[in-house]
Amino acid sequence: MEDVGGHSLIENPFEGLTKGEMFRRVADAIGVDSASGYLSSTNSCSHTDARFVGVTGASCGVCFGCLVRRAAFLAAGIPDKTTYLVDDKAGRFEGFVKQKSIVEPMRDFADRGIRARDVMVMSLPSGYAAQDALALSQRGVEELRSLFA
Question: What's the structural domain count of the chain?
């Protein structure tokens, strides 16, 4: 940023929170019902190409973004009203969902968990303690485990 003349300090006040912890804060601030409606209307899906299979306004439910999102709703105790293609009872999107799914690798990751050596190879911001990154990552993995329980 400095190379193009930009100068500013960017801070993320939520850097120490999991997505589920952030969702819980929303629910605490506006109530569970309002949080459910508001958060369910947002998008975390990494597959914007769903429109090519004739879908708009729906999330796949099986990509990294969707799995973390679904785990966050569970961890926060907020009903998830998101429309997920994986839940289509008619099976119209079965091929698309199967192609995009990372459910099994994510389940394996959640089962294995995060270890200190995993954090040691991360590129952390200066001043961000490895022990804080480990604790945050472990809480995030716990949220994922709840999805696969």
Answer: 1
Query: Do the beta carbons of residue 24 and residue 77 sit within 8 Å?
Result: yes
In this structure, is residue 134 part of a structural domain?
yes
Joined tokens for residue 18: 């999991």
Structural domain span for residue 70: 18-148
Q: DSSP letter at 2?
A: G
Contact indicator for 93, 53 with CB cutoff of 8 Å: yes
**Mean per-residue pLDDT for 12-32?**
96
Tell me the residue type at 94.
Answer: E
Give the residues across from 59 on adjacent strands. 84
The two three-digit tokens of residue 101, written as one number: 């799914």
The predicted-structure confidence for 38-74, as pLDDT tens digits, reads as follows: 999 998 998 876 666 666 667 899 999 999 999 999 9
pLDDT tens string 35-47: 999 999 998 998 8
Task: Please tell me the distance from the alpha carbon of residue 79 to that of residue 81, in angstroms, as a whole number.
Answer: 6
Distance CA 28, CA 36 (A): 12
As a residue count, the chain comes to 149
